[in-house]
Automatic annotation (TrEMBL):
The keyword Transmembrane helix applies. This is DUF2085 domain-containing protein. It comes from the Bacteria. The chain crosses the membrane at residues 25-46, 84-108. Keywords: Membrane, Transmembrane, Transmembrane helix. It comes from Bacillus cereus.
Amino acid sequence: MLHRYISQIPCHRKSERSFHSLQKYIPLCSRCTGILLGFLLFPIYFLISPTFILVLALSFFAQVPLLIDGFTQKWKWRSSTNTLRVSTGFLSGNGMALLISSSISWIIS
C-alpha cells in the first residue's frame, strides 16, 4: 500500500541513487527521500513565528546546498553520494516546510 503512494511522487527512481533496504529497492531517490523527511518538521514550524522576511531568507538559503549539489553533479564536475543527496534534500525540505507553514500562518492571521 505504501508503495502505491510512493509511486505517485514524481522522481527519476534511478536505482544507483536510491536506498536499498534488506536487499529491496526503495522506489524513491535519496534526494526526494530527504525532501519528504524534511517536510515532517512542517507541524513544528506552526509553533514558531519568525518574521516573514527571515522566513524567506532561511527558505531561500536552505535551497542553495541542494542546487549546488544537483547542478555540480549534472554538469559532471564531481560525483555526489547518497548521504550528501539525502542531507541536502532534508535541508531543502525543511526550508520548503518553513515557507509553507509560515505562509499559511500569515494568511490565516
